[in-house]
Amino acid sequence: REIFAEETIDSVCPFCGVGCLTSVSVADGRIVSVEGRNGPANENRLCVKGRFGFDYVSSPERLTKPLIRRDDAPKRGDISMTLENHLDFFREATWEEALEKAAGGLKASFEAKGGAGVAGFGSAKGSNEEAYLFQKLIRQGFQTNNVDHCTRLCHASSVAALMEGIGSGAVTAPFNAAEDADCMIVIGARPEQNHPVAATYIKQAAKKGTKLIVMDPRGQGLMRHADYGLKFKPGTDVAMLNAILNVIITEELYDSQYIAAHVDGFETLKEKIRDFTPEAMEPVCGIGADTLREVARLYATSAKSIIYWGMGVSQHVHGTDNVRCLIAMALTTGQIGRPGTGLHPLRGQNNVQGASDAGLIPMVFPDYRSVESADIRSEFEDAWGRTLDPVRGLTVVEIMNDILSGGIEAMYIQGENPAMSDPDQSHARKALASLKHLVVQDIFLTETAWHADVILPASAHAEKLGTYTNTNRQVQIGRPCVPMPGEAREDWTILIDIANRLGLDWSYDGVPAIYEEMRSHMASLKNISWERLEREGTVTYPADAPDVPGNEILFGQSFPTADGRGKIVPTDLVPPDELPDDDFPLVLTTGRMLEHWHTGAMTRRAAVLDAIEPEPVVSMNPRDIKLAGLDIGQQVTVETRRGAITLTLRADRDVSAGMLFVPFCFFEAPANFLTNPQLDPFGKIPEFKFCAARIGPA
Ligand code: SF4
Prior knowledge:
Keywords: 4Fe-4S, Iron, Iron-sulfur, Metal-binding, Oxidoreductase, Repeat. This protein is α/β, with parallel strands linked by helices. Helix content is 31%, strand content 19%.
């Protein structure tokens, strides 16, 4: 039946960090179609997720009432992780009862153990205002910095290296800068799948003659448009990038003037990089010395070169080192601070940039201001009227470890699904199961909610007002399009009710009031008032004045470091934590797929998307399939030292010999039962991109 829209509302896509602006058509209180709008990041374009992934909002599986765990439900540690109806373990409750129980349990643990007993995961799917309120609630209410979110699992290592090297964790140029570039490097990123609209800009630039270098251990469609496609050995990024730096230095392709004016650490790099000749690194990374030389020359001598990267770079125990190499390439050649140049870590979730900016991380308050600085802390103590924790909090994986060591005993999780997204799921789910008190606020009964004591039914993106900051640093307004189902409530109002039950005396008369309080602590938003956002719809931060456009290109003159200079940090080879051996001879890597987004909680409930990719698959090179005596399409078991999952075998020539690829969006076969929780020491990000595995018939 043809449905005619009664109303069309301007909003923003809820999925990836590209931040496409949308027009949402609504009839009978339901979304009936989504079109692209002329936003700065998408110019009317949308990908399959943005266009067809909207019906999760009206899914019959939406949580519509507060739930409390039944007294006769199985203990959380005894829950079978199969598809049985976990709703049976809960009873419906009134909001009053659920909020009392939620806040009461958190308060009891705080009174028993202080801040060390409590932690919170906020969400990059929520708005900036919700991220701000969530970190404020944990810091003010429980006097702890144990608050984190999914950035820890995606670009934490990028942010660590960028803060160290150039004093800012955000991109220095938007991805659309491809239009001005002469040379683009895309490394460890698969924008055609994960940032599809950004990929269109990269491909268009390549078609117009911009040189494209794609570096990825797995082949990908973007390589068809590339001048160089480097399928390097997994986990050898530093070897490959240091060889490129070696060429830049030995062939004197660097920019001496730029270095003298803006960069520290060049002499140390010069010394350290000597041994990383292309010939020495060729057997390590698998890329020929001549190719490494050509790529180095192309990047360094092009008038304007830009680097894009993704989780293939960041999710390693040497993730921070990988990004240090990329920063060193940009700083030695002066390929930063001008149109068509720069460093761009492509952000995963639609608001991971904004949630990080808003302080939803354990080391910093809003705008990346250190919790360890007495001056900064006293500003927030004065504003919030409480003594705050002077010590950095624990990160995502550290929180799980601490629970099992008997430390943290109560958690508040809003819109995150660590029971699917954390590495080594048996360990993570055991940790969730051993909490004394778990409050989960979400729109679905997620795998994490299975473990909860109290579940608070929350709002989907399309049901509430809020701002979201995309990978380009563009702050954009998302608007309510449809009503919330049943008794579900906007997340920010739930946070206020919890805060007031903790005695924090919060009062906000709406989202703009929260935004303005957040802005009072964030210099980056100084000239971007709520009124301006309402007027312009999207504004890039930072903006120099209330009436001038934001700065798309940053750091032309200086960096926001103590002395205004950038810093090169040389790196050594650090092998992946778990190498293949006789028992586990293959390399397993995990990631996303075009149709499904992250843990699949939303896209698996979007009919069109789930119809295209309905079942868990492991991809393997067709030759390896033959050698292993397996058949395409058969059920196989993939196993690592941490667990085993059963799924369907798919042939994929892009997967190199000796590798397996498993997407992490399928609850029926959670890839993260297999992954290695070993952390990068700086960014504290787990090594999702490399562990030893084996495969056999199921
Ligand atoms: Fe949404 Fe990202 Fe696709 Fe744009 S590219 S429509 S933001 S998922």
